[in-house]
Structures are given as structure tokens and as C-alpha cells.
Amino acid sequence: MRARVERAEAAADALDGGAVRVHAAAHEVAQGLLDRPRTLPTRFLYDARGAKLFERITHLEEYYLTRAEFEILERHTVEVARALGADAGIVEFGSGSGRKTWNLLEALDRPAAYLPVDISHEQLEAFAERVRARFPGLAVRPVAADYTRLDALPWPPREVDRTLAFFPGSTIGNFEPDAARAFVERVGAMTGAGALFLVGVDLVKDEEVLERAYNDGEGVTAAFNRNLLRHLNDAVGTDFIPELFEHRAVWNPEASRIEMHLVPRSPTTVHVPGGGPGGSGVRVRLEAGEVIVTEHSYKFSIDSFQTLASRAGYEPLEVWLDGGEQFSVHLLRRRPDEEDIAKA
After folding, report:
1. Whole-prediction pTM
2. Domain 65-205+300-343 is of which CATH architecture?
């Protein structure tokens, strides 16, 4: 057991850069399992294996989001570069394999710095090395962190004239509404007044199209979802049996979101070591058919997303759609806050 806990602590340190220790994570897991509805922390979807599985998802026929966003970015990166100007700094939240980054970096005029931020350290470092090789004059500073907990950015000494935050993939939809607004506000605080924000946003559409995107025929999304349980076993020391759980993804029209679930096929008990008061263990009984929520993916209209962005301190500059009008990419600019206006 001690070796298992030590492995869990090491994995937790790698996951959150030392910011969240294993016992805090265990408490979070235990509380989520005891809540109604039962939940598990979405961020645990993304260890090295989860990142690879998600990369496979983006190539699936049913998963229209990546193709639609690529189409938009290929058409409009020159306009983004023109709005940003030369000698800019770029921060990308959730860079992953970086497939959407190349066209953007190549379109920019003498970019000064690039900060990819991702929770998967192994994938992040490999991608950063490829960027350095392709853009030898660019200062590349990978940040291995949970970007939802990030409050500052390690810009290099070279001054940047303007900053662009890049947040592709409609990942903004994985936040609950209040948390989405808080994240956009935090991005604005880290990048400053006048900074640009380029963000991919999935749109509300036909229910069948939405549900197929999260229930692919090859079962890759199911493997990605169940991998969360494997990751928790390694990082926290839980004893989930992933094969006992069925993957489900359903559209909730009232909440405007896809809900991703894991559902036990038969009764099972899960032990969460260190998840209780004073570091005691917690045992949670799960009945067959009980839903555990692992992720929400909110879908927006153009107006609803721009309202969110405005309330978080941004003004819209451009919005672009793919040819099928399934997906949108928004270019926003951070407004100066009242303190900035007073200093001007």
C-alpha cells in the first residue's frame, strides 16, 4: 500500500506541478462520488494515454469539431495575424499535439514568444521541441500545468508588443457557465488590456449530430472516458475496475450541453484512500445503472457566447463559421478595465 501511495503522490505532483497533493485530489474525488449526481473531476481525463486517445478522437468521422475548426483557421489566420501585428506573444491553453498551432505561428509576423500550456507533460515537451526546431528564433516556454489553476504566465525577457490567447477545440464548453466566465476573466487578467483572444466555440445543432460526435462507432470516446478511472487508480490510489463501466453521452437540450457519463453495469464498491476526514479512506457503493458525470460539453449560439465574453471583459472583433455552419471561431479583444481607463 505504501508503494501505491508513493506512486499516487508522484503522479499527482506531475499532474499539477506540485500544486495539488494526492490527499486533496482524493478528497475531491470522494466528495464527487458522494454528491448527487455523482461526479468525477474532468481534468483526470488527460494523462498521457488520455491525450493520445483524444488525439485519435479528433480524426474520427463522427467528430466534426476538429475538421470544422481547421477549415475556419486555414481561411482566417492571415486576418488574425493582421489584427495582432508583429513581435507578439502567444499563449495556447490546452495545446495538446499542437495540430492547430502551425498555421497560426507561420502566419504571424516575427512572433516573439510562444507559451503552450498543457496538463500532459510528456506530450507538451515533445510538441515544444518540434516548435523550436521549426521556428528557431522563437522563444518557446512550455508550461506543464492545469490551465484552470494558472494565474501567471512566464513570458521571456524579450518584450512582446501584444499578446494573443489561443483556446481552440471548443474546450470552453467543458466549463460550467460560471466557471467559463471566470476562466475568460482570468485569461484577460493574465494577458492584459488590449490583448486578443482566439477561441473555438461549438454551436447548437441537430441532436443526432451532437450525440454521434461523442458516441463514435469505433469506441475511442468510450476508451477515453474509461481511461479517467485508470488515471485515478494511478494518481489517487482508487480501485475502479474500468471494464465494469459503460460509456454514455447524451444531449440535454434544456442545459444546452452534451453530458458524458460512466455507468456501472453491476453493483460495485470503490475505495478512495485518503479521501475522508483526517486522511481516512472512503468507500462508495455504486449500484448498477447509477450515473457518474465525467464531463459536460456546452454548446452555444453566437449571441450566447459573445454575451459571456462581454461579461468577462471582452469585445468581439470577428466571428467566423465553417461552411456547414456547425462551428465558430471568435476573435475577441480585452477591454481596459476601470483602473486602466483611470490611468490613461
Report:
1. 0.87
2. 3-Layer(aba) Sandwich (3.40)
